[in-house]
Structures are given as structure tokens and as C-alpha cells.
Amino acid sequence: MEEKEVIRVFYDMFEKALPILRNIKEGFRKESSTVLKEQARAFGDTIKSSLPFFEEIVKKKEKNEVEKKAIDLLITAQLIASGIENLTKKMISKVEGDVIFSERAKGEIEELVGEVEEALRDLKDFLITRNPDLKRILSEKTQKIIEMAHEFDTTHQRRLITGICMPKASYLFLEMTDSIRKVSREMRNFVEKM
Q1: CA distance linking residue 182 with residue 76, whole number of Å
Q2: Angle at the Cα of 156 from the Cα atoms of 153 and 159, rounded to 5 degrees
């Protein structure tokens, strides 16, 4: 198996994931559990569609270096997907549970998801170009997302202390920011493994 084939599978996976992530953000903004559920299914289908390719690699007794790397990258891509899936589940819980977020909290989640979307677009481009500057930018961007999420958590804690935010909303907000941090860390890991 050649590296070009592996890169193409991951590129296609991320290419399909980009509009889904955009729609997840929109579903959260509009508080539409229908949109969020549809996008969660679409995202799962995107990941599952690539599994036959990797199952063929796994079946092989002897794997070359490209194939071993492909499996390692798949695990990291699955961790990215797990983070996005968890984020979407918490968004659905928020909407269906009529949990109220302040406009600021909603805006912070939307901003973080927008940053993840931008990083995913860069990650997709990096797969093709292998540009070292883009690799550095991605590392910086994912670190920025992690720091932003931490900063938003700290600000959120102050809102909770002052009674602006309620504990039920707090739990969901923190779960969402934690999922976003996980996605960012695994995107950085993916790039480092390339």
C-alpha cells in the first residue's frame, strides 16, 4: 500500500467532516436538536465509510511502515471523532433539556467550534501539502484553542460563583469545552504523526 492512498482516505474523511462541523455549530446556534442529531449521524457515517479500507490493512499479517502508520493515524482520527461526537451529544442534551446558556457562554462555544473548524481545514490542507509552516501554524492554532477553552472555563467559573450560570448549564458547558480540548489535542497529535 502506498502513502498516497492513505492520505487520500484521510483527506476525504476530513473534507466530508468540515461541512458537518459547520452544521453542528449552526444547529447549536439555532438550538435545533433535529439538526444536531442529523449531523451526528452524518459524522458517524463519514467515519464508518472509511473503515473497510482500514479493515483490509488490519487483516494483513505483515504490514509495511505506511500501513502501520495508517493504523496509528486512524486511532488518532477516531479520537478526534469521539471528541466531536461527545460535543454533539452535550449540545443535544442542552437543547432537549431546555438548559439555558447565557449569550456569552453560547458565543464562547460557537467561537471554539469555529476555531476547530478552521484548524480542521488546515489539517486537511496539511495532508496534501506537508508544508512545515502549516504544521507549525496548526500546532499553534490547536494550542490556542486549548488555552481559549481553559480561559472560557475560568470565566465560566466566575459566572457560576456569582449566580449568572446554573450548575446544570455549568456541567454541559464544561463537558463541551473539554470535548473541544480533546479534539484540538488529537488534531495536533495527528499532525505530529504525519
Answers
A1: 11
A2: 160
